[in-house]
């Protein structure tokens, strides 16, 4: 989505995904999700969903916190550098690409289906992947009966990734936010307050960048 500066990618197996959005970045691989939430003042927030719970910190915070079944406490943890474009690595990982697959790719394209439905939505079906675009630009890409789905819209800068491993949404404008859900773990950021949730406990940073335990 060039208009909104959004990039989404999904690996061939669907086990890893990436979202690059003006509000933040999300990298999910297997059972782990790494999150970077962008702060306009430079105090970016970081979170990681993993087997211990949800750990989080911010650019200007010297401590790392962990929210687990016992509540919120300080911990030692590290976070990945997400400043580079990792979406291409996710896209090409496990994929069959290169000159050797050119003939197979051409065969799949020749067997692709295209139709416009009664709501003027354009639809393409290529190798069991369905791509649809509404007249206002909303784009959906889905496979396996919508079990794996990417959505983005140029009108409000929205993006959604839904897989059995993660559900994440982001948007610009009046409802500007970044949200991630994996199982019972959650992260929500609205540009000012940053909240993570796990096992019935919540904590994060408020609009003054102070730690808050809910």
Q: Would you give an account of this structure?
A:
By secondary structure, the protein is mainly beta. 7% of the residues lie in helices and 48% in strands. The protein has one domain. The chain contains two helices and 20 strands. A twelve-stranded antiparallel sheet has the order 9-10-11-12-13-14-15-16-17-18-19-20, with no helix packed on it. The longest helix has 9 residues, at 102-110.
Task: Give a short synopsis of this structure.
One of its GO terms (cellular component) is extracellular space. This protein is mainly beta. It has two helices and 20 strands.
Return the structural class: mainly beta
Give the strand order of the largest sheet, numbering strands 1, 2, ... along the chain.
9-10-11-12-13-14-15-16-17-18-19-20
- The counted number of beta strands is 20
Number of DSSP helical runs: 2
Radius of gyration: 19 Å
Largest sheet, in brief, is: 12 strands, antiparallel
Tally of individual domains: 1
The N- and C-terminal alpha carbons lie at a distance of 36 Å
Shape: elongated
Strand-helix topology:
Elements: E1 7-10, E2 16-21, E3 24-29, E4 32-37, E5 45-50, E6 53-58, E7 64-68, E8 71-75, H1 87-92, H2 102-110, E9 113-116, E10 122-126, E11 129-133, E12 139-143, E13 148-153, E14 158-162, E15 167-171, E16 177-182, E17 185-189, E18 194-198, E19 201-205, E20 211-213
């Amino acid at each position: 989505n060039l208009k909104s500066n959004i990039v989404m990618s999904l690996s061939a197996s669907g086990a890893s995904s990436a979202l690059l959005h003006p509000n933040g970045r999300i990298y999910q691989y297997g059972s782990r999700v790494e999150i970077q939430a962008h702060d306009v003042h430079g105090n970016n927030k970081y979170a990681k969903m993993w087997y211990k719970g949800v750990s989080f910190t911010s650019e200007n915070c010297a401590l790392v916190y962990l929210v687990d079944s016992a509540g919120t406490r300080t911990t030692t943890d590290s976070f990945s550098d997400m400043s580079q474009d990792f979406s291409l690595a996710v896209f090409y990982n496990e994929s069959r690409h290169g000159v050797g697959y050119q003939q197979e790719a051409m065969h799949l394209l020749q067997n692709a289906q295209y139709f416009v439905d009664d709501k003027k939505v354009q639809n393409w079906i290529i190798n069991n992947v369905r791509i649809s675009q509404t007249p206002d630009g909303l784009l959906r890409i889905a496979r396996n009966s919508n079990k794996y789905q990417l959505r983005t819209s140029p009108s409000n800068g929205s993006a959604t990734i839904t897989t059995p491993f993660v559900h994440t949404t982001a948007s610009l404008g009046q409802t500007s936010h970044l949200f991630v859900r994996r199982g019972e773990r959650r992260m929500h950021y609205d540009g000012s307050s940053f909240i993570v949730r796990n096992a019935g406990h919540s904590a994060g940073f408020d609009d003054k960048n102070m730690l808050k335990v809910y």
